[in-house]
Amino acid sequence: MALILNIDTAQETASICLANSGNILAADRNERMSDHAAWLHPAIGKLLDLAGYTLKNLDAIGLVAGPGSYTGLRVGMAAAKGFCFALEIPLITENTLRVMAEGASRMPVADKTALFCPMIDARRLEVFAAIYNFEMKELLSPAALVLDKASFQIELEISPITFFGSGSAKWKTLNTSPNAVFIDFNSDAVHLSSITEKKYGKSEFTDIIYSEPIYLKDFHTHRVK
Question: Is the pLDDT score of 202 beyond 80?
Answer without folding.
Answer: yes
